[in-house]
Task: structure prediction
Amino acid sequence: MFAAVPLLTLPPEPSLVIDVCAAPGGKSLFAWRSLQPRYLVCNETIGKRVGMLIGNLKRCRVHPVGVTAWDSEVLAAEFQGTADVVIVDAPCSGQSLLAKGQKAEGCFHPLTIRHNQGRQKRILAAATALVRPGGWLLYSTCTFSREENEDVATWLMAKFPQWVPQAVPVLAAYQSHLAAFPCYRLWPHQGEGAGAFTILWQHQGKGEASPLPDLGDRWRWQSTSQPA
Result:
């Protein structure tokens, strides 16, 4: 929930929210409940996690929502410039799992960190294409690695200068000491929670939003109306 808090600073009832790495669905549910978007798209590339995602969306009676199972670059091509809000809770080395008492073998190994950093950059680059001008991009991880957090954020802003980090006043006490721009870390010793990193950007380029595509029967699952 710490990583999703920046969503509470955004205008309510956006037209479209896309969660790029959605399973098991916690941040999708947070966005649906807090923002009440007109439409929510939940994407998950790992096939064995899609069923879990759909089950949670059904159980929590989320609507209207569509589930896709595409690579982030395919998702960007289909929904380019359509979303008001995009969420990327990225795959990471999972170092905070240790604080939960779980195993995360190799999570501090430089090769593991470098591999995840590469994935995160590729996913984020695709995610930037999803957001309409004026929209927002939320990036988060559950790792402590600077390379996967502040360094990835710095890379994105150098590559895409139209993305401007946004201050989240309620998280001011958690400002990262490893960055001069607004981004936030939760450490395991700071009360409840195993640890997280989060940063919110706004797309301050110019242009118009694109229309939502008609995907026909290519959804993995879709709920478009209020459940009875």
Observations:
- The first strand starts at residue 16 and ends at 19.
